[in-house]
Amino acid sequence: MRRSLMLGLAVIGVQFGCGMDEAEQRATPELAAREDSLYRCTTDSLTVYYSDATYTTEVGSDRCYCGRTPLRTGVMTDYAVTEYSEDCLGLAPAAP
Predict the structure, then answer these.
(1) Is the dihedral of CA 13, 19, 21, 23 positive or negative?
(2) pLDDT value at residue 40
(3) Run of H or E including 33
(4) N or C terminus: which one in the chain shows less Cβ crowding within 10 Å?
(5) Helix, strand, coil percentages, rounded to 5, for the chain
(6) pTM
């Protein structure tokens, strides 16, 4: 009984972000923490993310190959530059 109670409390603590302070939670953008295993690229593209509006320090990237899951590295920020983007033949964007 006690073991079940402790396990339940541990699960609840993890669900509520126990172990991360507020600064760490704010520093992790929602998109960077999100993993969407069902998403498939409908473009062949490369987007580079920068730390601030000076666009000098790269902090992440998002590389899409037609029909595959995106390859994401680092952190996604509001300061992004899409280096190139081409539509994939035969792959229509998913309807919202």
Answers:
(1) negative
(2) 86
(3) helix 30-33
(4) C
(5) 25, 30, 45
(6) 0.54
Written as six digits, the tokens of 67 are 């029909």
Return the exposure string of 38-48: e unless at least 16 CB atoms fall within 10 Å of the residue's CB, then b: eebbbbbbebb
Which alpha helices (DSSP H) does the chain contain, by range?
2-15, 22-27, 30-33
What's the pLDDT score for residue 57? Answer: 95
> Which pLDDT tens digit goes with each residue over 49-69?
999 999 999 999 999 999 899
Is residue 61 classed as helix, strand or coil in its secondary structure?
strand
Cα separation, 68 vs 40, in Å, equals 5
Confidence check: pLDDT of 22 > 60? no
